[in-house]
Amino acid sequence: MPIATPEVYAEMIDRAKAKAFAYPAINVTSSQTVNAALQGFTDAGSDGIIQISTGGAEYASGQTIKDKVTGAVALAEYARTVSKNYPVTVGLHTDHCQKEKLDSYVRPLIALSQERVDKGLDPIFNSHMWDGSAIELEENLQIADELLAKAAKAHIILEIEVGAVGGEEDGVTGEINDKLYTTVADGMRTLEVLGLGEKGRYTTALTFGNVHGAYKPGHVKLRPEILKEIQDACGAKYGKDKPFDLVFHGGSGSTPQEIADAVSYGVIKMNVDTDTQYAFSRPVADHFFTKYAGVLKIDGEVGNKKDYDPRAWGKKAEAGMSARIVEACEELGSKGTSMTA
Q: What pTM was computed for the model?
């Protein structure tokens, strides 16, 4: 099935929230990782989301080119072509984009999508993330309001972040402190500025101790009950159950119970990157260590082409990543829920 249309993407979010599950949002940086994501979703019988960060987009454009828009569009078009052969529905999303990168990433991508929509086509991406976690809330929401209007016109859903995520991703480091916990007041102010969908649909990452990177369970002090407090308080004021469509960032090191609690409070999307990076790389390391003599031309020998052919270890990398995505689907409750199942 092709990449989700704007209408189908909205339906995906509605289904996840109504049925209390969440979609794994898998970061990709290459055609191989796109293939791995599609296979993982297929093996799990789950729809899902493929997303591209600013760093991933730069990498995909060519290591000496480093053009984020070029890389993002290239991966999106590749995914749009190959996804037609898989029996699942997939959304396309761009991950964290900070203020200083908006003019070189999200804004031009929205403009390109608007050109397509004006011709009667679907936008390039289903959703874009504006990451205002490093600035004060009022400026964050002011920029979000501007982007929401442009995104809505181009049939795109905006993702925002209210609060801060600690740890490091794509060279951006967030401190681990009290700002990792969004407050009820923050949630109220978000709804006051952005509304409940009448200005355009958006998803929200409310932070509850989230940290990017690789951590063992117990290191990250998550408090998912914060999500319930904000949903309940804001829902009571506006007369709407769970008014926020929530996103879970920095999930590495989370316990199954923490994930389940977050989903029960309205999380419909969870970013998965660090764990799938390792799952992709681990089989490659095993291949190179165990087939050392074949991969390298030692002492003037010729090696073994079947061992150093990139397809030999690339297939193993994709399989390892796909298997980890199946695990993510199981943890988030999306396994077996595909619209096409």
A: 0.93
